[in-house]
């Protein structure tokens, strides 16, 4: 089975900063990688699908990139509402859906 | 707007069966290209996909849970359900239902609010 490793597990940043979160797959997954944001007490919310496609309604300061085994989620100019936990997710053809371990983005 | 709502007991005894229902509004679970999924989240294991069902009756399960899980759907009530047998404390988690886009990149684009299920005697 393909494993996805997400890092860092936590990150401190300030409003206005640019941050990058990484997800690495144990083998090539082309661009079958999605990103979610989860706020405390809420369900995850889809941000990016297919590695780089912005879900409708998601602010343009969010972007995704990568292919093969290495992927990044970038948030430009952090807003106060962006402090949350972020997850990557992959599905193979079985299908078997696998989530990364999560990155908690905290205010510095 | 699509809305999903989980319901069911919040406390289940060890070795018993966990049963949850997800009521869907704003769309039909007969929608093409969408499966309907159960996902859980526990502190120790993060987000874990349990399984997904299509209106045709096709069901995909996580192999790690397959022996204990049954997902079903009631088209007339526009809801789908989860049964997890022989539960232990390790099954304590927040259980979410979600809409599962099943074309190309396979994502989850609408979620219920989640329901906490605790396994304890």
Report on the structure:
The complex is a heterodimer of chains A (108) and B (121). Chain A has 108 residues and is mostly beta strands. Helix content of chain A is 0%, strand content 51%. Chain A has strands at residues 4-7, 10-13, 19-25, 33-38, 45-49, 53-54, 62-67, 70-75, 85-91, 97-99, 103-107. In chain A, strands 2, 4, 5, 6, 9, 10 and 11 form a 7-stranded mixed β-sheet that branches. Chain A has a 4-stranded antiparallel β-sheet with strand order 1-3-8-7, with no helix packed on it. In chain A, strand 9 and strand 10 form a beta hairpin. Chain B has 121 residues and is mainly beta. Helices cover 0% and strands 54% of the residues of chain B. Chain B is built from no helices and 11 strands. Chain B has strands at 3-7, 11-12, 18-25, 34-42, 46-53, 59-61, 69-74, 79-84, 93-101, 108-111, 115-119. The N and C termini of chain B lie far apart (39 Å). Chain A binds chain B through residues 31-32, 34, 36, 42-46, 49-50, 53, 55, 87, 89, 91, 94-102, and chain B through 37, 39, 46-49, 52, 60, 62-63, 96, 98, 101-102, 104-109, 111-114.
How would you summarize the topology of this molecule?
The complex is a heterodimer of chains A (108) and B (121).
Chain A: E1 4-7, E2 10-13, E3 19-25, E4 33-38, E5 45-49, E6 53-54, E7 62-67, E8 70-75, E9 85-91, E10 97-99, E11 103-107
Parallel strand pairs in A: 2-11
Antiparallel strand pairs in A: 1-3, 3-8, 4-5, 4-9, 5-6, 7-8, 9-10, 9-11
Chain B: E1 3-7, E2 11-12, E3 18-25, E4 34-42, E5 46-53, E6 59-61, E7 69-74, E8 79-84, E9 93-101, E10 108-111, E11 115-119
């Amino acid at each position: 089975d393909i494993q996805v490793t997400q890092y860092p597990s936590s990150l401190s940043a300030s409003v206005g900063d640019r941050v990058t979160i990484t997800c690495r797959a144990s083998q090539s997954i082309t661009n079958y990688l999605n990103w979610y944001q989860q706020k405390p007490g809420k369900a995850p919310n889809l941000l990016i699908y297919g590695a780089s496609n912005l879900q409708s309604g998601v602010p343009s300061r969010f972007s995704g990139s990568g292919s093969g085994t290495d992927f990044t989620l970038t948030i430009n100019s952090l807003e106060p509402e962006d402090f949350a936990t972020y997850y990557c997710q992959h599905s193979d053809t079985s299908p078997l859906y696998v989530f990364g371990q999560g990155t908690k983005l905290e205010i510095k | 707007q699509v809305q999903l709502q989980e319901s069911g007991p919040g406390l289940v005894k060890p070795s018993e069966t966990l049963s949850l229902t997800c009521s869907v509004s704003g769309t039909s679970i007969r929608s093409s290209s969408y499966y309907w999924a159960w996902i859980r989240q526990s502190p120790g294991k993060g987000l874990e996909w349990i399984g997904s069902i299509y209106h045709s009756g096709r069901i995909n399960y996580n192999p790690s849970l397959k022996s204990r899980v049954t997902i079903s759907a009631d088209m007339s009530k526009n809801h789908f359900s989860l049964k997890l047998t022989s539960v232990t404390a390790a099954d304590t988690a927040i259980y979410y239902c979600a809409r599962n886009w099943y074309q190309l990149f396979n994502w989850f684009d609408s979620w219920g609010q989640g329901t906490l299920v605790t396994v304890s005697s």
